[in-house]
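Predict structure. Chain length: 298.
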Amino acid sequence: MPIRKAVIPAAGLGTRFLPATKATPKEMLPVIDKPAIQYVVEEAADAGLDDVLMITGRNKRPVEDHFDRAYELEGALAAKGDTTRLEAVRASSELATVHYVRQGDPKGLGHAILCAAPHVGNEAFAVLLGDDLIDPRDPLLTRMIEVQEQHGGSVVALIAVDPEQIHLYGCAAVTPVDGEADLLRITDLVEKPDQSVAPSSLAVIGRYVLDPAVFDVLRETPPGRGGEIQITDALRTMAADPGIGGPVHGVLFSGRRYDTGDRADYLRTIVRLACEREDLGPGLREWLEAFVAKGFTD
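Prediction complete.
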């Protein structure tokens, strides 16, 4: 059965961006003129996943409103003849069929994914984390779906990081797959290990394509690091026994990735993307060059 469903966990409190996220969901923070969560839904839709389930929590109503129709606003823009903004407003509600379920208790990413079980059923599905934005020119998710359809099981996205940074990520032990330069077989996974015991410098980032067997594994997975149910621990169980939902593979990604979960990286993301835009780039690049030349002073 072709993969058609995407799950997007969006129940976090966004504490790293306080006080901005006190009343505004972190997922709605703008990356130029679109909220970060829209980039993620666009990525899912571009990969052919038109059935999206968001795992939300309290105070996430603005996320639901954003992907709904806004008839009053659309009517006002239509009356003014502002077709450009009208199309932009309608775009978010036309990307995919979006469903919502609340996580309730903040028990970790594994628990959030488990909340998707009734909706997903017995189908393979994708999970996209909102802090990682993948440039559409580098179709990582499409490649991961291709791998899952060829090899079965589950697939995670991997990047090579500085060994000193591996404690910030889930870390994979891998073996090569003949004839596939970007494909690795995962033999073990460790959540945020110390550098001294990390099995590699390959870090798991926020894209997964999962066999539905993961739900039964998550139900039996005890809380791990941070007292939360970790998807890393469930995938570790599956990697150790391919009889549980097939093998676990990793796609090594070397394309453009933007991290919006860290304040400094969030700012870099905005600058990088704005510099590439035809409507903003020329003026912004000119200002940046002058600002740097003046030693970052007016």
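Summary: The chain has a mean pLDDT of 94.
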